[in-house]
Each structure stands twice: as C-alpha cells, then as structure tokens.
Amino acid sequence: MEGGELAGTERPEGRVHAFATLRAVANVGVAFGAGLAGFALVADTGWAYRMLVVGNVVTYLVSAALIMRLPAYPPARRPVRPRPGRALRDGPFLAVAGASAVLSLHWVALTLVLPLWVVTRTDAPPVTVAAVLLVNTVLRSTVAPSSTGATPGSPCCSRYG
Predict the structure, then answer these.
(1) How far apart are CA 110 and CA 98, in angstroms?
(2) What span, in angstroms and rounded, lies between the C-alpha atoms of 114 and 40?
(3) DSSP at 79
(4) Would you give the distance in Å from CA 58 to the centre of its chain?
(5) What is the pLDDT of residues 16-41, one digit of tens each?
C-alpha cells in the first residue's frame, strides 16, 4: 500500500501509527526476503530461484487480498480546487521533493547496483548481497527511529500526523 492510499483510508489521528506500522511491516518483509534470497543464492539451483519468484507472487496476492478488505472512505471534500502548476511555484515543496528524490536513490543503489556489482565484479560470495540487505534493514529499523526522535508523541509526529 502506498502512502497516498493509506492517507485516504486512515483518519488524521491514526496516520502516524499507520505509517509507522507500514514501515515496520516493509522492513520485516525486506529482512525476511533477504534471508530467503540468501538461502537461494547458497543453493544456486533453478528450483530455489523459481521458489523465490513464486513466493513473491504469493506475497503480492496476500497483500492484494488484505487491501481489498480495507474499508472504503469517501474522498475528502476540498473547498477550493488548486490552480494547475501551483506546486511548481512552491519553493519549499520543490526543495523537499528534490531532497527526497536524491535520498531515495540509496534504495536503488542498495537493491540493484550493489548486488550486481558484488556478483559481477568481486570475488565475494553472492550470499553477501542478502547479508548486506539484512544488516541494512536491521540497522534502519533499530538505529534510525531512535536517532530521529520521531515517536508518536513527539512534536514532529503530532504536527504532521
């Protein structure tokens, strides 16, 4: 589920908790997937790789079934329709969007570039890729929340929640 879908289905007072839960579930999924991928890389058989693909399909089907069970909320009514191109004239919005775009490149580097480099350009075993993803997920799940101070009662969360 994407953030926009979540924002539309969750009441404002529950959004921070909902987004935190969504991030935690995503982190668990990445860690679990990295672990399974590590086993497939160690086995290095066609059957192991096919099972990873089938497992991924199953997770998408389960996700779709769960999303279909969400209650439907009517769209929020907007009193004034914003003019087209308004966001392009909003400097602070463009700065945050640009910074977010640059910072999100780490995910592409970690999940695509690094694995290809490890497998094709180094003598490291391919299972290293799974280990790197697993360590990154554990660190991101444990160190990042405590270092930002973003807890449900903090001012940043209550302001934007």
Answers:
(1) 20
(2) 18
(3) S
(4) 18
(5) 777 778 878 887 888 888 888 888 88
Rounded Cα–Cα distance for residues 62 and 2 (Å): 16
Gap between the Cα atoms of 143 and 146, Å rounded? 6
What is the C-alpha separation between 70 and 8, in angstroms, rounded?
11
Q: Which two tokens stand for residue 75?
A: 């769209």
Angle at 104 between CA 103 and CA 109, to 5 degrees: 100
Q: Within a 10 A sphere around the Cβ of 22, how many other Cβ atoms?
A: 15
Angle subtended at Cα 2 by Cα 110 and Cα 95, rounded to the nearest 5 degrees:
70
Contact 157, 135 (CB under 8 A): no
87 pLDDT more than 70: yes
Predicted local distance difference test score (pLDDT) of residue 47? 95
How far, CA to CA in Å, does 30 sit from each of 11, 27, 36? Answer: 27, 5, 10
User: What is the C-alpha separation between 107 and 2, in angstroms, rounded?
Assistant: 16
**DSSP label at 124?**
S
